[in-house]
């Protein structure tokens, strides 16, 4: 059995389909930041109102994910995967067509619900179609789909905004969502098979008590780390377009460099965590990112593009190890673990962006980057409390 698992390819059809559906679902997550400067101008918004849009997206797409995860751990809901893909695509498709700020917020909430429905079930499915010895690498493939989708969303939205029709071109987001949802639906039994015990007709084993302290530390870490990431993706375009008066195209390059490098970082981080341990990768990611975050206000031109790419690679490299670590310390709660780590605490990070919006309104946009540059100190302190050894593969805590 061990030899069979070792020879089993990582890129199986179910995992590939899950990664593609993750990418298409998260197109909306990457598209909105590029659209924000245009929405700010169209509706004459304050920075705080822009922050509310981001918070609405993050809260509805993330905070309620544990509820979906709780249900998905107890019921068979594989249809949430294609349904989430389709709903998120419909939401972002009509975002550029709305005529009022209140309607815009309602559409953002609808989009977020699609994202929230997809992630717990999708992550749970990715966990169970993966070999246990390579879950870091397999989850990195699934996560790369999401990060690639966010990065592609920035590029796709940026291109659409340059075509005749402007914001009305968001309707084209319906195409990838519809095609992908249909493809996943036709392959649903393979994409989301039942757990082995259920397939064999066995009763579920009693679930171990939740490790409350470790889970709290992990969620606090993700909250702060997500505030950093969401703060950068939100305020990089606003800083270079609205504050410095730069080109929206240049701001799009910066955001795309950040997100595309994050795609590579996600795969590298998840793969190396199988070899060196989740904790090693998580702490190392933040240690390297810390000095990079302090440089954004002091660079320009191509140097800033390079800086954005390197920062995205190092910061987002911790994503897959965090998700797998949560699932390892919560056996029997795999969907809920995903809902908490890539959902609940990330949604709370949207509240952090709202606070950053308040800082920008009262102290100027550059002050946002000053605040972001000191946040890694808190994440490093929290990461030191996480379970696992240094430079070894025994990631899961002892039972």
TrEMBL record:
<feature type="transmembrane region" description="Helical">
    <location>
        <begin position="280"/>
        <end position="299"/>
    </location>
</feature>
<feature type="transmembrane region" description="Helical">
    <location>
        <begin position="169"/>
        <end position="188"/>
    </location>
</feature>
<keyword id="KW-1133">Transmembrane helix</keyword>
<protein>
    <submittedName>
        <fullName>MFS transporter</fullName>
    </submittedName>
</protein>
<keyword id="KW-0813">Transport</keyword>
<feature type="transmembrane region" description="Helical">
    <location>
        <begin position="104"/>
        <end position="120"/>
    </location>
</feature>
<keyword id="KW-0812">Transmembrane</keyword>
<feature type="transmembrane region" description="Helical">
    <location>
        <begin position="47"/>
        <end position="72"/>
    </location>
</feature>
<dbReference type="InterPro" id="IPR036259">
    <property type="entry name" value="MFS_trans_sf"/>
</dbReference>
<feature type="transmembrane region" description="Helical">
    <location>
        <begin position="248"/>
        <end position="268"/>
    </location>
</feature>
<dbReference type="Pfam" id="PF07690">
    <property type="entry name" value="MFS_1"/>
</dbReference>
<dbReference type="InterPro" id="IPR005829">
    <property type="entry name" value="Sugar_transporter_CS"/>
</dbReference>
<feature type="transmembrane region" description="Helical">
    <location>
        <begin position="141"/>
        <end position="163"/>
    </location>
</feature>
<feature type="domain" description="Major facilitator superfamily (MFS) profile">
    <location>
        <begin position="14"/>
        <end position="391"/>
    </location>
</feature>
<feature type="transmembrane region" description="Helical">
    <location>
        <begin position="208"/>
        <end position="228"/>
    </location>
</feature>
<feature type="transmembrane region" description="Helical">
    <location>
        <begin position="337"/>
        <end position="359"/>
    </location>
</feature>
<dbReference type="InterPro" id="IPR022324">
    <property type="entry name" value="Bacilysin_exporter_BacE_put"/>
</dbReference>
<feature type="transmembrane region" description="Helical">
    <location>
        <begin position="305"/>
        <end position="325"/>
    </location>
</feature>
<feature type="transmembrane region" description="Helical">
    <location>
        <begin position="79"/>
        <end position="98"/>
    </location>
</feature>
<feature type="transmembrane region" description="Helical">
    <location>
        <begin position="365"/>
        <end position="386"/>
    </location>
</feature>
<dbReference type="InterPro" id="IPR011701">
    <property type="entry name" value="MFS"/>
</dbReference>
<keyword id="KW-0472">Membrane</keyword>
<dbReference type="InterPro" id="IPR020846">
    <property type="entry name" value="MFS_dom"/>
</dbReference>
């Amino acid at each position: 059995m061990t030899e069979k698992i070792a020879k089993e390819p990582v890129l199986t059809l179910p995992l590939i389909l899950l990664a593609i559906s993750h990418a298409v679902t998260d197109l909306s997550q990457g598209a909105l930041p590029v659209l924000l400067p245009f929405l700010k101008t169209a509706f004459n918004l304050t920075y705080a109102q822009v922050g509310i849009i981001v918070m609405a997206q993050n809260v509805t797409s993330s905070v309620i994910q544990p509820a979906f995860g709780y249900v998905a751990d107890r019921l068979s809901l594989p249809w949430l995967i294609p349904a989430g893909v389709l709903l998120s695509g419909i939401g972002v498709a009509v975002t550029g067509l709305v005529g009022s700020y209140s309607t815009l917020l309602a559409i953002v909430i609808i989009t977020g619900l699609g994202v929230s429905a997809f992630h717990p079930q999708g992550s749970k499915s990715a966990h169970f179609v993966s070999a246990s010895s390579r879950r870091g690498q397999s989850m990195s493939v699934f996560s790369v789909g999401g990060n690639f989708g966010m990065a592609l969303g920035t590029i796709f939205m940026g291109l659409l905004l340059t075509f005749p029709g402007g914001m009305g071109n968001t309707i084209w987001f319906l195409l990838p969502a519809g095609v992908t949802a249909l493809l996943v639906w036709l392959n649903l039994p393979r994409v989301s098979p039942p757990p082995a015990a259920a397939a064999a007709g066995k009763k579920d084993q009693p679930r171990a008590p939740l490790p409350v302290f470790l889970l709290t530390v992990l969620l606090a870490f993700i909250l702060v780390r997500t505030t950093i990431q969401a703060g950068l993706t939100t305020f990089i375009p606003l800083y270079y377009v609205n504050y410095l008066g730069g080109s929206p195209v240049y701001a799009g390059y910066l955001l795309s460099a950040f997100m595309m490098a994050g795609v590579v970082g996600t795969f590298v981080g998840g793969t190396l965590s199988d070899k060196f341990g989740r904790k090693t990768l998580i702490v190392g990611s933040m240690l390297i990112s810390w000095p990079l975050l302090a440089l954004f206000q002091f660079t320009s031109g191509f140097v800033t593009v390079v800086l954005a790419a390197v920062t995205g690679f190092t910061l987002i490299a911790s994503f897959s190890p965090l998700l797998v670590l949560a699932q390892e310390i919560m056996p029997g709660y795999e969907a809920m673990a995903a809902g908490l780590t890539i959902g609940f605490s990330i949604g709370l990070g949207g509240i952090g962006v709202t606070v950053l919006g308040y800082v920008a309104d009262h102290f100027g946009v550059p002050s946002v980057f000053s605040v972001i540059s000191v946040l890694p100190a808190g994440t490093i302190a929290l990461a030191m409390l996480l379970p696992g050894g240094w430079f070894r593969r025994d990631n899961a805590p002892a039972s």
